[in-house]
Amino acid sequence: MESFFTMISGEGQFEASQKSMENGSMLTARQLFLNHLAQTTDAPLMLEIKSAEGIFLHGTDGKKYADLISGIGVSNVGHRNPEVVKAIRKQTSKYLHLMVYGEYVQLPQVKLARRLVATLPPGIDNVYFVNSGSEAIEGAMKLAKRYTGRTELIGCHAAYHGSTQGALSLNGDEGFKNAYRPLLPDVRHIHFGEIADLEQITCRTAAVFIETVQGEAGVRTANPAYFQALRQRCTDVGALLVVDEIQAGFGRTGTFWAFEQYGFVPDVVVAAKGMGGGMPIGAFMAPKTLMDCLKNNPILGHITTFGGHPVSCAASLATLRYILQKQLHRKVAAKAELFKRLLVHPKIKEVRAAGLMIAVEFDNFATLKAIIDRAISYGVVTDWFLHCNTAMRIAPPLTISKDQIRDVCGIILKAINKATSTNPDVLLRERD
Questions:
Q1: What share of the chain has pLDDT > 70, as a percent?
Q2: DSSP letter at 386?
Q3: Among 128, 134, 173, 367, which is most buried by a count of CB atoms within 10 Å?
């Protein structure tokens, strides 16, 4: 299948303007990328970006790209948000890394922890900072086992919680797991949204890990009754309920935390991605009575060298404040509805949305890939989902304007027309 890189490389586009000397020869940044950076596919996009701001990425060739995936759910407040950049600069003028997390009193950490706790239900009053979503899941897994004294963990089919060994064990797609077995023992899976499956949660279960919105499954949601029944079942058997808000949190679905929409309170909340405003950070949050079990038998029950890095914490605090001050989460529903009204085309089978987590379904991967490649060539970056390669991922910065939404939807429709050779007269229009 022809990738976008294959399609454009023969045309000599995106020629690197910066060169490096290696072994006496001049190599472009593109060549150095291929030579020395580990690749995860045979056809990386190879977009060479020199700067980014707001919803846009700027290539070395002068081309501008609308980033409709926010660096995979990271740039909720836009690229290089001025308030985030200001906070980073202010913190770098004071200190960077000091000591292993949890030993020194560092103002960026304690201020962020206090503001995070204020967004959560009463009782969830302790924050453990880490570097990423996967790491936060790992910490929550250890916390659940240590607190309950149990070993069984339950995830959902089609779930995605990260790529480290423990998080991978909880993931629900066998295609991404089989090559790395054996994984963690005593991990089971239930079907997301199916109340009958809740009977599989028993007094052996340490915790159930669940996404409030299944992201990599292609934006799949469950109704409030399911989450409330899940909460009750976990309470009845003494299992912890851990909600993964790594993609859905920090305003993406229309409330600050997605679980707010479902009428239940979890035991542990996991966050990352949009939390840092572009800087690496993650956290798992729980009542102090739970978190205290990591202090004894053994001491240092969970440790991290760079978790809670002061610069990342400063960026995260600025991100949190910006979302709340600008009420970005409260504007999500209207923007999501505009996407749904505009993305109307005979080739689109369905548009699923949980706020600005949007999946646009097509017949097959070949069709979708051709559309994605064409859209990139027109200056709009989208993607597909790990566990759903027939749907286009749309998750723009929450700062995207309605005029920008109209522009990018028009380009997507143009890309559909061109990639599928459908009637070129199918124009941008809003559903009645």
A1: 92
A2: T
A3: 128
Q: Which long-range contacts (CB under 8 A, 24 or more apart) does 45-52 make?
A: 45/4, 45/5, 45/376, 46/5, 46/9, 46/14, 47/14, 47/376, 47/381, 48/14, 48/16, 52/79, 52/80
Both 98 and 242 in a single domain? Answer: yes
Ranges of the chain with pLDDT below 50: 1-22, 24, 426-428, 430-432
Average pLDDT, the chain: 92
Torsion of the alpha carbons at 284, 290, 295 and 297, rounded to the nearest 10? -120
**Would you give the distance in Å from CA 289 to the centre of its chain?**
29
Kindly state the helix (H) or strand (E) to which residue 351 belongs, with its residue range.
Answer: strand 350-354
- β-strand pairing of 56-59 with 383-385: unpaired
Asked if 333 and 275 sit in the same domain, the reply is no
Contact present, 279 and 88 (Cβ < 8 Å): yes
Query: What CATH number should be reported for the domain holding residue 348?
Result: 3.90.1150.10
At 422 the pLDDT is: 59
Q: Which residues of 262-297 are buried (b: 16+ CB within 10 A; e: fewer)?
A: bebbbbbbbbbbbbbbbbbbbbbbbeeebbebbeee
Number of separate helices (H) and strands (E) present in the chain: 13, 17
Sole residue written with tokens 């309605």: 402
pLDDT (0 to 100) of residue 25:
60
Of 46, 73, 41, 415, the C-alpha closest to 277 is 73
How many structural domains does the chain have? 2
The total of other beta-carbon atoms located within 10 Å of residue 403's CB is 8
